[in-house]
Design brief:
The structure is a homodimer. In chain A, 45% of the residues lie in helices and 17% in strands. Chain A is an alpha/beta fold. The first copy, chain A, has an 11-stranded mixed β-sheet, sandwiched between helices. Chains A and B meet through helix 8 and helix 9 of A and helix 8 and helix 9 of B.
Chain lengths: 332, 332
């Protein structure tokens, strides 16, 4: 299995990416093609012992910065690690591409270089979120912020396949994120999407309210990319603010400090609940090839876990399954 | 001061509402007009000792149920506690109306019975959310789910006045909820709203990302009602799920249980951070009269606090201030 990894993507690149890649090749049966500035990659790799034959380097002179506009990776920085990596994947037939870089840039360059799957008009980013039961697959968390109802329907079809094939949930329950349970809720957009899913998805369970995202009511939760992005950022921000507040309050009392220490082993589990790096990445679906997007603040552990998650996608051959199952189903 | 309270609104009505009202009249200098089914109100009130002259009863035979469509309060149940209460407020010149009932019903009936403020096209619900600094005023959390950019601008003007007059923040920093910091982020809708606020609001600080809602970066955070509703429900759901998980994990270890007990006094503060009942209600702005919307699951404490918050609005005369400051400012 050969996976292309953007060495320059993410706030802690290339250090964190390369540390994660080294850990992955030691632990997993995978071959990594690192794309980025050759000298920087060599300098980082020199810090580690690892099976040399499992990491290959490809030079890319440019880097799409986190603040660059999404189309920069296509129009201006044609020699960026994102563009070079995706072209390489396509030309050489490598199995997948992983980047923790500029999300908009990865989305735009993936659609441009790999093209779309037949029957899918827009890419969508899925995210495995932890729930009280196990997890839910939330899609779209930020690829397409001007959705039409058919885009949501296409996301639902892809989520259905991903959840079944990669996450192992047979007949996943699919819900539409909305501001009320009844089919009459939401704006015209949500009502139309609801109708479309109800008529054409046998495992559609109706609307899911935002307070149920983390309870595990649905296996797949479908929403527009603007709303999905708000959901994950509110969750992330709230967990961070609540933790900061908790640390601040506990620090005020020696007894509370001792109490916190006694709870530590249990709190570790909860921390894991909120830790994006556990799954490591968010699959970009809809494009004609496997692309995994890492969190901008990806740690080495997150990179390693993203590689493992991507390997599962490759093993389950999900692009072929999607091509077979989706084509013809999305036209009205 | 005379405030009309919907005795039948909320999941625990009329019990919780009446218990809260009794607590309020004992503690505050306020006169309450309770609207609802006379026999039920009398039965509940008979449980308490309170200054009889401070609570007046007005009969309304119907109740807008939580699952009723928003327009039911206008078109079908004309003798509902919501409609009767709002008409009463207008006819008798009472100071405000409070309901923890069907939110859509309260919004629709308020706009219908009270009319809109000059220069405001759509009602918006504001919510005081706790932050690491103190609080932010998030608006709209669910009144108008099909916003145009001028509705967001009008919400910003109202939030500015509310935050200054009622919450006491001089020159509040106003932010637009968006999926990135740069003005180029979001869909066309957010870009237009950003431009409008930048040109016409001197205290506009630009986009605020959803992970900054609870950090206190902005005093007022402006968004569409669909998105705002998602924000508060994700936050509510996440805090509930995280608490449930924490209890489950702590219960597994006697040492952790002891540790949790030692942290209790500090955790109480954090619980307060996430407790909607602290503020008690969410003001419905844009209609020509003071309306406060309670949480559907309002406890007696939440009702009492909603009455206190409403009294502050009355004292600061915010409807008059809004009429004076907004008219003429919102036309292009």
């Amino acid at each position: 299995m050969k996976i292309v990894v953007d060495a320059m993507g993410g706030d802690y690149a290339p250090q964190a990416v390369i540390e994660g890649v080294v850990a992955a090749v030691k632990e997993f049966n995978v071959h990594i093609i690192l794309v980025g500035r050759q000298d920087e990659m060599i300098a980082e790799l020199s810090k580690y012992q690892y099976p040399k034959e499992k990491i290959e380097l490809v030079h890319a002179s440019e880097v799409v910065e986190m603040h660059d506009h999404a189309t920069v990776s296509i129009r201006k920085k044609k020699d960026s690690s994102i563009s070079v990596g995706l072209r390489l994947m396509k030309e050489k037939g490598y199995d997948a591409f992983i980047s923790a870089g500029n999300t908009g840039g990865v989305v735009a360059a993936s659609a441009y270089n790999l093209g779309m799957l037949e029957g899918v008009e827009r890419p969508a980013i899925g995210l495995v979120v932890p729930t009280l039961k196990k997890f839910s697959f939330l899609i779209d968390v930020g690829a397409n912020t001007e959705s039409k109802q058919e885009h949501l329907f296409q996301s639902a079809l892809m989520a259905n396949i991903y959840t079944r094939e990669v996450l192992g949930v047979q007949n996943p329950a699919i819900g539409l994120l909305n501001i009320g349970e009844e089919s009459s809720k939401g704006s015209g957009f949500e009502k139309e999407a609801h109708k479309m899913m109800e008529e054409r998805l046998p495992n559609f369970i109706g609307n899911v309210e935002a307070n149920e995202v983390f309870t595990g009511k649905a296996d797949c939760i479908i929403c527009d990319g603007f709303v999905g992005n708000i959901v994950i950022k509110v969750a992330e921000g709230l967990m961070e603010s609540a933790s900061a507040l908790m640390r601040r309050e506990i620090a005020k009392s020696p007894i509370a400090i001792l109490g916190a220490m006694m709870m530590k082993s249990r709190l570790a589990y909860i921390k894991k609940f909120a830790d994006y790096s556990e799954y490591g990445g968010a699959p970009l679906l809809g494009v004609n090839g496997l692309v995994m997007i890492g969190h901008g603040r990806s740690s080495p552990k997150a990179i390693k876990n993203a590689i493992r998650a991507t390997m599962r996608e490759v093993e389950h051959n999900i692009i072929d399954v999607m091509i077979k199952e989706i084509a013809g189903k999305t036209s009205p």
